[in-house]
Structures
1.
Amino acid sequence: MSRNLILRESQIMKVHYITGVAALFVVAVHILMRLVVPYGSSLEYDHVIFNYHNIFYAVLLEVILVLVSIHGFNGLRVILLELRQSTRWENSVTATIIAMIGLVIYGTRTIIIANGLGT
Amino acid sequence: MSGADERKITLKVFRANTARSKNTYFELCDVPVQRWTTVLDGLLYAKCFIDPSIGIRYSCRMASCGSCGMKINGIPRLACYTKMSELGGSEVICEPLPNFPIIRDLVTDFSQFFEHHKRVQPYILNQDNHQTDAVSSDHRQSPEEVDRFLQFSYCIKCGLCYSACPTVATDLKFPGPQTLGQLYRYYADSRDGGGKDRLNMVDDRHGIWRCHFAGSCSKVCPKGVDPALGIQLLKSYMLGISKNRGK
């Protein structure tokens, strides 16, 4: 049987379930905050920048980014593992972790720039 | 086989000989049927009086040995436990079990299936199980302790759950519902000392977590075992939601 090097599969799946439930909660908060103003105007440039400058909103977006990335990329990893079975393929599936880290870094960079912390 | 209520049903028997050719086809065999005629009876009639080359595996004819598993009208079933009169229609289609390599006709190769089964050490693991006359060596169990695993011990290893499992269809390294159900059977047994080591046996990337709870394994089991339940219980022990009493 093929073992995971860092975390046991049960630990990975525990993180998967927790991030899934937590993402559901924070995305609900995110959508509710959007509904504070009329939906159309919530997408206007000034309003979006105003939201990014609110540190609590920026933290909320960062949390959503991290939770959804972990949950989504692990889901993708599971699909790929079930798609084909060979040592080479399974090792290359580990690249999803690198893709996840890359996406989180890029998303965090966007949040920081939009928030104005980088200037 | 003669009587007032006798009628004929056409058996469509899957034919293949992988050693000789990749060609497969269905052979049509008209067999006489009465209320109590099973699919295995029909196949044996066809083998005796129509085509002796039909390949089938069977033994007990009473759903105890688990040898005659096959796909009957699209669903994995035991041929000896399926009455043709209950299937309805004038045609019964017999195919080999899915998720198993075909050896010939309706006979499939169970090597991989038994390898998975053996890997989880399907027997009581206990340092204290040497034979002795001392009364203290008895491993007594209360009825409640037996109830925790009893239904899982009815498994006859017929492979129907394995053939119905959608995860096995794509991931051959997945142990399958039979193996995981048996793992639960021994993990839940108060006499077993395997404990966490048992859970670790299937805690890998192709292990228990690849079960998506389709439930088809429990639906096709001819002995009323619920492997899907055992798998979910094992998951709950692994996540720490449930605690294994007495361990």
2.
Amino acid sequence: MKIEFRLPTRTLLGMMIFSLLWGVSLSAPFLAGQSGNGKNPNTLAEQAQAALKARDYGLAIERLKELARAVPKVGEVHANLCIAYYSSGQFAEAAKECRTALGLKPGLANAHYFLGASLAEGGFCREALPYLEKDFQRVADKSLKRIIGTDALRCYMDSGETNKAIDLDRSLTREYPNDPETLYLTAHLFSNLSASASQHLLAVGPGSYQFHRMNAEVLEIQGKQDDAMAEFRKVLEINPHVAGIHYAIGMLLLQQGPASLGKAREEFEAELKTDPGNAAAEFELGKIAASLRDKDEALAHLQRATRLNPDLVAAQIALGEAYVSAGRVQEALTPLERAVAVAPGNPTAHYRLAFVYRRQGRAQEAAQQLALYRKSEKGILQTRQKIRSGVAGGSEGESKDN
Amino acid sequence: MDRRRFITALIASGISLGNLPNLCGQGMASRGVPPAPRPRFSGRPWNVAFTDIASRAGLTHPTVYGEDDAKNFIFEANGPGIAFYDFDHDGWLDVFVPSGTRLGAAASDQKPATNHLYRNNRDGTFTDVTERSGLVRTGWCYGVCIGDYDNDGYDDLFLTYYGKNVLYHNNGDGTLSDVTEKAGLGQSSTRFSTGCTFLDYDRDGHLDLFVSRYIQVDLKKLPARGQSRACQFEGVPVACGPLGLPMETCSLYRNNGNGTFTEVTQRAGIAKPGGRYGLASVALDYDNDGWPDIFVACDSSPNLLFRNNKDGTFSEVGMEAGCAVNGDGQEQAGMGVAVGDYDADGFPDLFLLHFSGDTPILYRNVKGQFFDDLTYPAGLAVNTGYVGWGAGFVDLDNDGWLDIFHVTGTVYPEVEKIDKNYKYKTQRVVFRNLGNGQFEEVSSLCGPAVLAPHSSRGCAFGDFDNDGSPDVVILNMGEPPSLLKNNNSSGNQWLVVKAIGTRSNRSAIGARISVAAGGQRQIREILSGSSYLSQSDLRQHFGLGKAQQADEIEIRWPSGHIDRLSKIPSNQFITVQEGRGLIKP
């Protein structure tokens, strides 16, 4: 199946063309002394370069074709013509010119790269992949490597080579962790895998509790809370001992507002009977008790939650808050210090800890925590602003890894 | 995988493109929190009900503020405060109602909208004296605060505008004069000013002036309704902002003592924290050191607390003091602010209202050192569906404990036409103080005037009929104001204290009054401004419960002088003058 999202890649590639052109310079000595139809090859080459610089690909192709007629045996000319075709979206012509270039001069690396890219963009993945695989391993330029890699990833996905796609995706996300195109393809790859696994589950286990659980989770994400709850209940009908289901129902009930608080509490308690190690259920029970101003019960649940999972940051923060609320300020230190250790980027943890220090008269430590709070809050705000300006202004995502 | 399947999978994984505006905030900071469960009702009787007498009292002019069914720009949506203002000093509260206008109104045939001043006829009715008093003015009026800046014995009126602010001098003969330019408060350009508060920050006996501001507005550049995905609410195009628009700075003007002011914003350190989306501002002495500090409730940005350094400068300490953000360190959309010592520990506390999807916040003042977010333990997180604006700590039933009254109203009238669950007009909210650090909502026990839906903004508190129970005047967008008469049948005792400065400013703004009665001590501070851009009665009302007298009254004046009175019988209005003590009755 063809993937339609190739424009960003070509835009980036277009921006790279100038440096590539210099890599196969047309003003090199191999043009000297040659003549064709009366026009000076060097003049044609200069005109072609100027046209490419102005992104006037039509004119560039015209000049390069003239140049190819004038000096038909120069591989670099065909390589550049290939690049110009590629830039203008004429992939079949680009591939043809790159093949000619390689026939004339097999060592022309750029012709190799663009042959793979042109074949991939043109939809000939099977032919493209040998070029792309080889080039991805050997190319040194980081930007070009990313383009080759993402082309290859698209081809693997198109041709159903899932394992190779996963391996390549891991390499790409390791090397380009902040590249929007790579992240987009990663999302594509795994949603594809998710969809095919769910379809397989539907085929092999339509009556299984796993099927109902997955269905419930999807319905929950879609905001269909009643349907989701009904599906979770079916899971329990099939297997009442599945861990996590009472918890999920409890969370759905919490979303219904204060009137369902009692029922939610029953679900969390049922969850703990099924899975006594569920720290999240203890945490929710602690929050419910706190909201009902039952300080002792809140403390008991939150203490258990943090014992079960000391890295549950929200529970550590809530425990700290519960201690402060109960006037046990000294005891609030341990959970809050744990919270900032586990999640040093969590502004709430720093903020709460700052005011515990403040209560104890530890002004310097309080100031330090407030500084850390400001730093982590600033980071979150910056991210939020980036998202906001991206959404509001529709700014084009560009790679930060090049 | 084709695009359709891919998007389906994304939706299933919760990355729906339709969620993006919410992900980014639709214009104001909101946390999307659910309401906390309501605690079991105390069962105590509540003897307060309100009646809206505005119409029969003659408060009849609707407040024009942009078009009624759609707001193109944020300055049309936010709306103004309101004031109880005894402009003629007859001991009966008059009412000042700010007004906006409509874009393009100047070119239309309609009579221009104006601010209104209603004089109290002392019989439950009011007379519109706008023209006679010289207060006719068309524009986008926002904030109102009063104070006798020239110490001539008549409280003057300051108005903030999206436009140019105005200082009116009270001539003492029922008229007021625009003295803005003469006083050195003129502006060369349009600015979006919001809150204002008179204060004597240098304690020289002359009232200085603080002005908070919202956004930097250039109408030519201001994005129009729905211009980007961020200018949407529930998928409906709405006025943009404040998020995404440039923040503004506050200003401080020092009174030169000769009827003029000098801007000292930079010198005093007010500009140092930079811009915020500043709304309500109020001067109060939060740390009880005798020097007025300044609090600014900020929309979608951290609140500001300027601590007075006692040398003509301020330090912004909101974050260090714990009142810039909520207890989790999250910024909120601060609109109005109430000031009052709800737990009677001698330190003024703060209560702020926010956007829908969030709780209000109760900042308990911990010995003047910092503030604790006690919203949830105090039982005030039970509503998250309202957009809250004006608010006050006020002892509605005279039991000696400050209750909370606040008004609500959303900002996007156009959404209501599409989403039936969205209401532009919403009810008022009343919380009774249980006297143990907790509150319980009693709105439904306060009568239909409280439950009536309006899109309200400012509200001010004062005893307009001098019956000993505090009443409420409320600004409603697109409608006449509400005047809620407090029908208090509790039988509790009360005392109202009017203070007149001599060495201190004549309005006694900043004076701290402490009343001991029935084994309890209550404090009030005379405030200029507060609530949402509003001015409440400068007289201070105390509920005394069953106590037949105030055992002791102490007044700490801004000059530092202290007057003490003892054994003052309840149920009366008294006047105290600095250095002379009781002068009336």
